[in-house]
Structures are given as C-alpha cells and as structure tokens.
Amino acid sequence: MKLSLKELEIFLTLKIFDFFEKPATSFEVWKNLFRLKKTSPEKTTLFEVVFLLENSENLKKIIEKKYGFYFLKGKSFLVEKRISRDILFDKKFQKLKKLTKFLRYLPFLEGTFVCGSMAVGNVKKESDFDLILIAKNGRIWTLRFFALLLYEILFARRKGLVHSKKTSENKICLSCFLSLDSMNFLKNYFRATEFLNLIFIYGKKEIFLKFFEKNNWQKNYSYFSQTDFEKEKSFEFKDSFFKKLLEEILKGKFGNFVEKLLKKIQIRRINSFLRSYQINTPKRIEVSDKRIEIHLNISKEIKLEEKIHNFLSAYVL
Question: Which domain holds residue 30?
C-alpha cells in the first residue's frame, strides 16, 4: 500500500495520538498535523484533512472512526477511555486553576505553561500538574525558592518519583524553570507534540509569543504552532502588590546577593536529592543560572522518538 504525502502525515499524526492513547477529532488531527518534509507544500486545510479521513481508501485500511474520533485499527476501546479522561481533565483543570491563582504572588515570574499529561490530554486520577516557570533574567534561583516555598505551604508540591494519590494527585510539579533568554527546548517530536498543546496559564501575551518565537524549530515538525490559533487570546493575571513589593526589595545589589545565596543553598539540596535517587532510567538534568530542569525519567520521550524513527524507516526513508 502506497500512501500519498498527505495520507502519510495524517497516519503519522494519528500514530502520535495513539502513543498517548488518545483518539483524535478531525480538527485535532488538522491542528496537530505533522509534516514529513521541511519543503512540504502550503498548510493543509481542515477541509483536506476531513476529506481524506472520510474518503481515502488507503486510510480506511489503517484507521477507524467512532463517535467522531479517529484512531488506528483495533483501538476502538480508546474512545471510551478518551471520553472518561476528558471528563477527568475538566475536573482536574478546575483544581489546577485554584492552585495557579497563587502564581501572581511569586517574584520575578514572567510566565507559566502547563505541560505534561494535562497538555497532551491523557490525564489519570493520580496525575500531577507539570509547570514550566519562566523567570526574569538573573533571578531564576529566587523565583524557584519562592515557588517551592509557596506550594510547600499550600501542601500542594509534588514529591517523590511514584505517581500515587498521596505523592502526586493534583500536586504541582516544579521541575522546569527557564530564564527569559533561555526558553529554547530540545528539538524532537515529543516536545513538538507538547508545544502544540501547552496551556499558558499566567503571564503577558508578549511572553507567550516570545516563547514560541524562541522555539520556532517546531515548524520543521508541524504545520502550525499555538500562535496560529491564540494570538488574540488574553491570558494574564494581574500581579499582586506582594509580588511587586518583593521585586522592589530584591532588586539591585541586595537582590544579587540573595540570588547567589539561594543558589548555593538550592544546589546543595539538589545534589543531595539526586544522590538519594540512584535509579537506572534515562534522565535530563540541567542546573544553571539560565535553566533548571530535573527530569529523572524521560523514557516515554525516548520511546516516542523510537516509534517515529521506525515509522519513517518503514514508510518514508
């Protein structure tokens, strides 16, 4: 069976959705459509995607449809799972909004994205809330200190590695802090998939736009980015008086001193934490004055890259 370029791109997109156990609507396939060639023609229209999903004899041999969702053949059981997860997502999102309303009190916070399972839409009851926090340049350690402190006080900070009701359910995971001048991410399909669905939950519109400008490599993977759909959306919270007061106190030389002190304390604690978790899983750890990423298990990301590589080897290369 020889698929056309557009059919292959739809197939690849549904393959990625399948990896996250998520059947997709025709609109979701179009919005998340992955490109196979950087020189692919102009953006595919929603009409083209719908037409191929409904009429392509090639695609009908490898995909099915139920209740308006498309999925790989033999995976109809995922539709009920998708529907129940959508209901769960709505409930968890209400809890997330209650927890993130406190972000307006954090000094030097410029913007916040929700990533992970909440972004890609495959939440479970024990899922936590993964955040990407963007800090003002030169104040990443100060922001991290206050963020950790805030969610400790609220008893809402994710701890440990195991997902469970006690350690992770509806807790805030603070594993990624970026400075304004270091918002670029590793280029791969996993990140590209996540970027298409990130939830910008705090910050000004210019931060949202700048983030995707810094990660414009995504256009080599997909036809669209969030800026194609949400340029006119209004996101921002109003900064609190407490946040402004702390930023005023912690600016200049005194703020630089506090930043260095908090860095020293936190690096010591991070090193102690990493020594206590000697696990044999692929990791991504970067600790610097521009970005702090501590991901102790990135096997899911690696598995997706392997699946896509196998797909490209079988159908494209």
Answer: 5-75
